Amino acid sequence: MTSPELTHPVPPTRLDDEEVANLEEVWTDRPGLYGFLATVDHKRIATRYIVSAFFFFALAGVGALMMRTQLALPENRLLGPDFYRQVFTVHGTTMMFIFAVPVMQAVGLYLVPLMIGTRNVAFPRLNALGFWVYLIGSLLLWVSFFMNTGPDAGWFSYVPLAGPEYGPGKRSDVWAQTITFTEISAIISAIEIIVTVFKQRAPGMTLNRVPLFVWAMVVTSFMVLFAMPTVATASAMLALDRLVGTHFFNVAEGGDPLLWQHLFWFFGHPEVYIIFIPATGLISSMLPALTRREVFGYPLILMALVGTAFMSFGLWVHHMFAAGIPMLGGSFFTAASVMIAIPTGVQIFCWIATIWTGRPRLTVAMHYLLGFFFIFVIGGMTGVMIASVPLDWQLHDSFFIVAHFHYVLIGGAVFPLLGAVHHWFPKVTGRMMSEKLGRIAFWFTFAGMNITFFPMHFLGIYGMPRRVYTYLDGLGWNGLNLTATIGSYILAVGVLLFVFNAVRSRLAGAPASADPWGADTLEWATSSPPPSYAFANIPIVHGRSPMWTREPGEGAVTGLDSKESLDEQQRMTLITSVIDARPDGRHKDPNPTILPMLAGLAIGGALIACLFTPWGLPIGSVLVLIPLLLWGYPHKPAAEAEVE
Amino acid sequence: MMDRPAVDVSHLPTESFGHRSIVWWGTVGFMVSEGATLAIAASSYLYLRGNETDWPPPPTPLPDLLLPTINVALLLLSLWVVHRAKHHAMRFEKRHTGIWMMICTAVAFITTVLRGFEFASVNTSWDDHAYGSLVWLILGLHGTLILTDLIEGGVIGSIFFTDRCQDKHFSDVEDVALYKWFLVLSWVILYFLIYLSPRLM
Amino acid sequence: MTDAFGRQAALIERLWWPTLWVLTAIYIAVMIALAYAMLRRRHVDEVKSEVRTARWVGAAIAGTVVILFAYFISDLFTARAIAGIERKDGVTIEVTGLQWWWRVEYSDSVPERRLTTANEIHIPVGRPVRIITSSADVIHSFWIRELHGKRDLIPGDKSEFWLRADSAGVFRGQCAEFCGLEHAKMALVVVAEPEAQFQAWYDRQLSAARVPPVAVTRADSLIRSGHDVFVTKACVMCHTIRGTTAGSSIGPDLTHLASRRMIAAGTRTNTRGNLAGWVVDPQGIKPGALMPPNNLTPAELEALISFLESLK
């Protein structure tokens, strides 16, 4: 488990080679398709989550290029209005629900257990189920799109446009079901992360020693627990209105379209921070390796994370300023929206102080972090502008908003994420990504991003509303639009180069050592890539930067695996206490099984059947019950248990 | 140099109760997200109610009280029953735990059936008016939880009558008890909201 | 934001510029700090003072709080100034959003002086205007950036807001809330003009269309037969022309179509060629619009266009 560079002798308390080989046998999935489908290894599941999310990111990116091509010239006839509205709806829905939130959670599902020194997430089978549900939901959206049944009322599906009267067909039903799917998997991931962090930290990792990325994922997960049920309930209400004739949003029968907006944005604004907070965690956890010092202001950053999470639930109405809300309410939500800039500012200042007092290295990951500052802070500034009710009246639903949120989300989430891929790629794959190609890809991405989205600020100010499939000649919008289109192609080249670099490095990159960056957190203590059991001996933590305070001959946890447990093929994880991470129990971790996938397929079948008939729900529920019962029902006493 | 010895954990238990168990935390997690769902449904009810002068909107009659009230009483009773089961589970008494879990399941079954009849006793249909949609939504969401609890309790209870029973299943009984608290307390609030509040406010 | 012609837009613009410059200055300061943090020379035996760093960070946070507070206060004052506009002697206009055009109704205490028109609003300079918003189908949003910010038109939720043009001008507005297929081609024109001109326009709009009773000249006979085409073909199913038998309110009121600058809700300029193109093939110009294509003989079309062009 030690890295090759460390020369200190292995202390006698550690496992011998034979025991490690046993551990390997207990934890490693069977080869072949069955092993692939049945795995409950958080690393394998998280990796396929990340790869799927990037795949859908690429598809949605192609959609973005199509839109930009259509908008390159006034009254262009490349895409008709009906196709265009599906493209922008599917683009937005994919980016928010299928890419951004899942990819952040997936990075968390990969890194969190390693960072806190445990072998797997808390409920490995549930984790696998979450992935399958996510995958089916995402495929539902895209297959429908390719069948010309893509949702077409925008990613926030305002009623009555998305309601039964003005949105006939199955398009908005597909949207509602996709949302339900992805929110189920988001809630599952959130519970995984919270319980794993609370109960499975390595001994000595008291709450004030938890890495900031892990904290960020915990805070995010709590937000998910409150925000995602809201949108799942709202989308279920929309589906009911459409399918069985309820009247939640029907004005004629006591419903209210504004109820939809309240519900959607009560989820929708926290959603932005559900995407952004993990990214800030990535930054806080990369900076120590990149500047060779601990992050400045750990408690400040932690307070900022928690403060952001709380405040983010108090400003949803700023998406509805133009709907004519009372002035007093407007002031309250303006105050909340302005105030949330403070914790974000706190984090930015702490990071700059870290770089200032550290010794920064300009790796590709650092390039992306600097790109983050350059882009995201612009998004933050425009965010402050639209927090004001009067300014928002002018800027709302114009291209200014398109510019704003792409600056926030590409700058605030995609750039840290791409940096993180460069940073953790060696850990995940055992190979380094090319720095040279990485730099070229960075500059294309950076330039393309700014050339695409900066002009949109002006387009918005000059009156161009968002979500238009074309615009008339002679309104002064032509040049800016053409510039944005050119920029989008440059951005696409950058992303392609990035993907090319990742694929090439995966196949033929230079082999990576266990800790190529001299980083401070525990995931670098194990080999690259980590073995299936992650840590043969669970490490003991003595500080916030365990890798920097390690000492020769340091002790570790022993006695987690017993002779019997290894003989019985029983996987063991260590349970510790919530606050101070004292060893408290040995948990029997479940073995691989295909049941989560079957349950996922059953849930998928049920929800897809609900597109067509309300009977899908009861029939589907029974189908879902079968794998769940098999899953919950105990096997024969452990001695007879088999690997599968 | 500091002394940093190894920690031997071989003596630690493999099953535990309450917040020492990860399943307990998982149950809490699901309770939070399900609670958020019910809260959102209740908020929608109050929001749309704020648009109306009369609630329920005329000519819809008030919901009946008798059946729902019996059901609330049954739910409260099931709390006591499940705590008897928990009492025995924490002493690892297999037979008693099993018997009380079966009683608990029987009560849960009656509650579930009565919940089915509650839909008829609210005197409105889901497609009459937004009011009806909301009442049915709340009944339905909570009804799903009741049904889940019935199945879960029944399955766990039946395990105690087989030879597959392990230590962890006693810990599961405790999680069923915890979940029951959530189920009952959330319904007391929702009962007040949909049955009593239109009469009182 | 820029180019304010109205009181409300001017108030917003007055908040906009200082906000823009202050935030830009902060942005530049942050970037300079970051660049210096990256590039500064580091001494080999540099002693890092965490306390001094903490002071700098604290100062930056304090500065952020102060600036944001000042911004919040100026925002409040702007919102109050906009809400506190003078409302005496106002013109009341009800604007209804429909897929994908605007119905415009001027109200008046005298029923005969109530006016219905579409897609072009005239307002007097210097007088407050009360806009009552509503929607007949989905959510739309009314936005004339030279005069005021947006206001959503929400079905079942009639609300109102005020604006006032302080100098004359012709402004183009466009629906700002996605409302379906032709959201992109749902524009309108607002003409702010001096009181006298406005009154003249208003009186003219009140009059009914005059169809020549007897065809004396060739032009008159063309108009006359164009009128006949209008009231016998599909046109009459959806449109109103006051003074004729056409009285349906599904589509825009066309009584004074020829006086308008644009057709098809701001999609084309109101020329003879565009009008003919629109009548024959609305789906080619605005795919999904609710107006069906019309099969007319060349003679019918020419007559119809002549008639429409006579509706000054």
Describe the secondary-structure layout.
The complex is a heterotrimer of chains A (644), B (201) and C (312).
Chain A: H1 17-27, H2 32-38, H3 42-71, H4 81-115, H5 124-146, H6 171-199, H7 212-243, H8 257-291, H9 298-312, H10 327-339, H11 341-357, H12 364-387, H13 389-395, H14 399-429, H15 435-461, H16 478-508, E1 557-558, H17 563-567, E2 571-576, E3 583-589, H18 595-609, H19 616-632
Antiparallel strand pairs in A: 2-3
Chain B: E1 7-8, H1 22-49, H2 66-89, H3 94-121, H4 130-159, H5 167-200
Chain C: H1 7-39, H2 50-83, E1 91-98, E2 101-106, E3 115-118, E4 120-124, E5 129-135, E6 140-142, E7 151-153, E8 159-163, E9 169-174, E10 187-193, H3 195-206, H4 218-232, H5 235-238, E11 262-263, E12 268-269, H6 272-280, H7 282-285, H8 298-309
Parallel strand pairs in C: 1-5, 4-10
Antiparallel strand pairs in C: 1-2, 2-3, 5-8, 6-7, 9-10, 11-12
Helix pairs in contact in C: 1-2, 4-8, 6-8
Task: Give a quick summary of the entry.
The complex is a heterotrimer of chains A (644), B (201) and C (312). By secondary structure, chain A is mainly α.
How many angstroms separate the termini of chain C?
34 Å
Give the overall pLDDT of chain C as a whole number.
93
Order of helices and strands of chain C: HHEEEEEEEEEEHHHEEHHH
**Sheet/helix structural class of chain C:** alpha+beta
Which descriptor suits the 3D outline of chain C?
Answer: elongated
Unreliable runs of chain C: none
Largest beta sheet of chain A, briefly? 2 strands, antiparallel
Q: In which order are the strands of the major sheet of chain C placed?
A: 3-2-1-5-8
Number of strands of chain C: 12
Radius of gyration of chain C: 27 Å
What is the chain-wise order of helices and strands of chain A? HHHHHHHHHHHHHHHHEHEEHH
The amount of beta strand of chain C, in percent, is 15-25%
